[in-house]
Design goal:
This protein is of the alpha+beta class and about 375 residues long. Helices cover about 45% and strands about 15% of the residues. It has two domains: about 5-145, Reverse transcriptase/Diguanylate cyclase domain (Alpha-Beta Plaits); about 165-380, no CATH class. The chain is built from 14 helices and ten strands.
Length: about 375
């Protein structure tokens, strides 16, 4: 009989695929809820399913951490567990989001109106079992995947991604080394290229009106926004609508990937862009316009190596699976796409490269990409 295995609290548990023979190992005895590790694995798999099917799910969390009295907490959790049993359907999944502190329910196969109706039902059921004082100790939160209002809200709802925190813990030493490398590398980069921080501002000022630096809001890890720095390569007061429309078509696959990054406005640059200054063409071709991003790295907003950070309006055209490139690692100055694809790949191919980097990431991979970057810059392959 075929078996599958998974980890619960660091221990391997085997389960027969043909039955629920061992399903009792996955639930606690007191409340009948899935154990924390297994429930979070289910949440991860539901996200993946939704990415493919486009059918949303709803995660409800009941947080009991504010209840100090242990006996009172046990009684309230027992009442809440009973409510969950009566409220949920067979296709819904109940478990510990945090053991003995936060209960979770994944409501599958929902529509847009279900969140409000479920919230009302939850309130009504709790009022029948618990008094108002007891209910006030429970923090109830609702999280829809894919996240609602994604066009207006770039920042991710991290409650839907508990596996990312766990992954960070397992790679804590490697991430510390990456951050150390970022600090040392960016300081060395600023020192090594210090003459350019004097020469290039003079050339920019002499050849066009406007500031030396181009500042733009970009989206970093977990969807957090930050101010992205570049040496200005375009004339001031240009219309961003040109690039915005280009990017929309590029991400949706309606536009050939032969150029688009109006002043750092995306991962691609518009070839023969009339908005670019004469010195700006040289800066872009040589990638010297990227040098100020060493300061973004020093501030911890970026890394030396990672996916390129998008502009907020790019997210409006992102598919669900595209957003993974924003969640699991900091954006970088260079990366696997810049080294192996640059401006000669489709957007989907670029995202797949980023996900490959995220999945296979190691310090040694970063070092290899950093060593390959100068050659790519010198040859100017794929740059405009």
């Amino acid at each position: 009989m075929k078996q599958t295995s998974f980890q619960i609290n660091g221990n391997e548990v085997k389960q027969h695929n043909s039955s629920l023979l061992f399903s009792h190992y996955l639930r606690d005895r007191d409340y009948g809820l899935y154990l924390e590790d297994y429930f979070k694995e289910i949440l991860y798999l539901e996200r993946k399913r939704t990415e493919r099917s486009k059918k949303p799910f709803l995660l409800m969390l009941l947080d009991f951490t504010k209840i100090d009295d242990f006996a009172e907490k046990i009684g309230i959790m027992e009442g809440a567990a009973g409510v969950l049993r009566s409220l949920t359907r067979e296709i819904d999944l109940k478990g510990w989001y945090e053991y003995n502190s936060v209960m979770g329910v994944i409501f599958t196969e929902i529509n847009g109106n279900d969140k409000d109706s479920l919230r009302q039902k939850m309130d009504n059921h709790l009022c029948r079992v618990l008094d108002r004082g007891e209910i006030s100790g429970i923090k109830i939160s609702w999280h829809v995947f894919p996240e609602e209002d994604v066009k207006q809200k770039a920042e991710a709802d991290l409650e839907l991604y508990p596996d990312l925190e766990k992954r960070d813990d397992s790679k804590r030493l490697a991430l510390f080394l990456k951050r150390t490398t970022d600090i040392i590398g960016s300081l060395l980069g600023i020192l090594l290229f210090s003459p350019f921080f004097i020469i290039l501002p003079l050339l920019i000022k002499l050849t066009s009106e406007g500031p030396v630096f181009f500042r733009q809001e970009r989206v970093g890890r977990y969807g957090k926004k930050f101010t992205f720095l570049k040496f200005r390569s375009m004339h001031i007061n240009n219309d961003p609508a040109i690039h915005k429309e280009y990017t929309r078509k590029l991400i949706s696959g309606q536009q050939d990937a032969k150029g688009a990054d109006g002043e750092g406005n995306c991962s691609y640059k518009i070839k023969d862009d009339p908005r670019v200054t004469p010195i700006g063409r040289f800066l872009r071709k040589s990638s010297l316009d990227e040098l100020p991003q060493f300061f973004n790295v020093l501030k911890g907003e970026m890394s030396l190596v990672g996916p390129r950070p998008p502009i907020p309006y790019e997210l409006e055209s992102y598919d669900i699976w595209h957003r993974r490139r924003l969640l699991e690692i900091k954006p970088g100055i260079t990366g696997i796409w810049q080294v192996h694809g640059r401006s000669s790949t489709t957007f989907d191919e670029m995202v797949r490269m980023d996900i490959k980097y995220i999945r296979e990431w190691s310090i040694w991979m970063d070092i290899k990409l950093l060593l390959k970057t100068p050659w790519v810059i010198l040859t100017g392959k794929g740059a405009y």
